[in-house]
Structure prediction request, 951 residues.
Amino acid sequence: MNKKMFRLSVIQAALLMTLSGCDSSSNSSSPAPAPTPTDIPPTASDVTVDGAKQWIPVSGKLLGTDQNGDALTFSFSENDETISPLDGTYTFSHGQLTLDGNLFEYTSISGQDASITYTVTANGASASAKVDILNVENDPLAYQQWHLRNTGQKAYALSDEMKQGLVDIGIYTTEEINSIFEENEVEELVAGEDMNVVAAYAQGVTGANVTAVVVDSGLEIRHEDLIDNVLINRSLNLDESATDRTDPTSLSNSGDHGTSVAGLIAAKGWNNIGSRGVSPDTGLIGMNFLGSGKIEQTDLLVHGFPGSGISSDEEISAFNRSYGITYPGFIAYSALDEAVESYPNLMLRGGKGALNMKSSGNSFEDGNGEGSLCADNGANDLGLTCYNSAFQPSHGHPYYLNVAAVNANGKHTSYSTAGASMMVSAPAGEYGRYAPAMVTTDQMTCINGYSGFNGGTISAWGGAYGEDFAASQFPFNYPGHPENASCNYTSTFNGTSSAAPNASGVVSLILSANPELTWRDVRHILASTSTVIDAENEKVELTIGEGTFVAHDGWIENSAGYQFNNLYGFGRVDAGAAVAMALDYSESLGEQIITQWQGLGSTAGEEAMEAVIPDNSAAGVSQQIEVTEDIIIEAMQFEFDIRNDHMGSILNDSLLTSAGNDLALEVVSPSGTRSVLLSSKQALLDASYSFADGYSMGYILNGAVFLSNAFYGENAKGTWTIKALDTGETNIVFTDPDNYWDATGLMNNPVESVLEGVSLRAFGRAVQ
Amino acid sequence: MKLNKLTILTAAMCLSGITQANAIDAVEKKDIEIKKLNTIAAARTNSADFGIFKVERSLKTVPVSIAAPESIVVTKGEMAIVNIGNNSASDVVGKGTIVRNTITNKLTTLTGNITILLGKNVEASEVASISGMEVLSVFPGTDIAILKVKEGNDLVEAFNAIKQSGLAVESRVEVTETMHEAQ
Prediction:
């Protein structure tokens, strides 16, 4: 426990009075009556608690005494109102207090100095004094960081300025906007929907002694709220043109993604400046990976290979990777990428491994190049993901942990890409207007950054609608906000770009709590402690011909008792529960076991199968694969080759085949757990391609590997059933033909798709 | 089967107001002007020379300060990619050669290196030897190596030699730009 003992500022003074009686009528011959004991009222003295940290409990002792030794009781008041305990906790406007005898534990919630009046009572008499909480260490914006502690705060969204701006410009009447705001305040702001970091801090864990690597667009190493956590001379500028290799500060003036990501992980805590990271005492290293003009071996350096400056025994907790590829086609798996991307897990931290935390993508509704497909094919209305997280090959192995994004109401964001590869979810929010986004660090000064004169959104909105309107819609980001005078922070950062660093912060807390854990232990803790959110999340069932196909299962519980959802993985990370498990960790996962690929057809090195996937048929085509090894599953991979001769072609001058849009894949484990790998209605418009060989014309999937975490903890032994099906028989007209091909629509696949091969590989451990 | 499908498609065209079979999906069947498959054309004309990259032999990188404005294709910081109008196939592909990513259509530059995942019990030097390259880096504990093209040798030829040798599980020509973007 990270507690600070109080300091006694006022010395207790006690005055003992003895009283004697004299009865003039007393008979001298009678024995004098014994003097009646006189009760002495209790006394109370002021107590000072100096230098407490917001959200971290401090303990102290109430200075109440009674000379008669009468039993003491304590009570508390604030503004002359008695505070009654609820479940043993006294809640004040500024903090909470629990009492054990005369020992108290106080947690500052407000981060402000405060004074508590306490009263000690003994034998009907009482005395009062104060507990003065002085010099509370704080982060002035933390009270708006709902992802850390959600009180239902707005985080500068749904502001009065925004409301007035919309009325002034004539978009809404006052009545209309009031109604919208009232509805959103109820729907979007839900207290308690957070990562429970306060419980982690209460266990004395704030992320010390570990370092997170921010692999991103840059890192402003001199930022006022990052500098104390940035490891001196350890960051890398990977630009060919760099003059200072240790400084990856971005030269952009309209916002640096990496600087905002870094603040979510580890903005310095309790320095009375700006915001707070999830893991406020964790070190930071930055690498400006994104963009063009990079030096040789960049791909290796950003994975901690020799030459990166990261030693093999350094306590690196996480590499945060809030980036990805958004393309309406499936990118084939790469053994080379797996070898590179697994390096942190297998080689760093003395072999215990560092974690790769990877954003899942922001393409639930739409992505890049598919145009209006997912509005036109029904995916948006149904709540099916437009892009699947599996489209990116780095999401196909367990060495990258996919992180999805959730809102301040504990539900799926409008954009977070879904898929069976999801590991966990974390807060990120919407756009900071009608619903909260993240409050985090931004490039310093109002000249640079998302906040300030040159912020991309502010510039665009100012240019289009005028500065007054832009200022009203983004009051915190626009220069002049009293809580953001230097524009060093933003309130509009979001995306799975935010979810990943929030999860990286939790991983840093876990490894700070217990540095003996391996990367697989951390995965196990995340799977075991994450919170089921949006519990009523509904399944999506499609009718196909005479049958049905469940394209989204909602929450499932597998046979090992783990709950899983393609939107959220194992749920939203819970820092308090994760740290508690880390501190008292008793699992022994043993050596990692990876089976050989095994399967049927082309993916198994055999002749390609010709298993036709019937058009618009819920029956589809099924294959079974027998696993003989007794393995407790930590992750499952499934590889597919699926051909459709028209993938990569333009039909009738302006159409694409619907084959990729219509394809659905499901797997059922030997234990009966079902995992949907492809839901159908997804943006698989282009032919499959690989980095090594380019396009595979005529293939929807070629060497395509899907990861599923849904079977975590189950035994892999037994029969696996894999089904591929085509879910549609319709042509689709694009309402907007602005796509990579200028295609006007999809033609229901004139030729049927063919499953040529399917294989699987298990990652796990021996049955004990 | 193909004929059956076309028959169904044709029949569907004759029915107005037909709704999609999907009971939940509210999207109505889109009546598209398709009766049958008439033409098939490749969706892409930009074929790759290796991996996903096409060599752009007529493009060169020069400082912006000396680039003729009319020849600039794109600027990257203080450098400009310019079209020199000479698509000479005799040029050796190596460090600094401009290539086009056939997926993103963006231009990038070769570093002159190839990253390889070595086959079982294969030494990086063996691969270097058969491909006319030299070993730049190896990483103990992994099967990853970086090879560098020798001065005057062609990187595409080296890449193809590595693929044909079977000594590498996978190889990739290194460029100076990642396909990844913030997300």
Notes: Residues 265 and 502 of chain A are 6 Å apart (CA to CA).
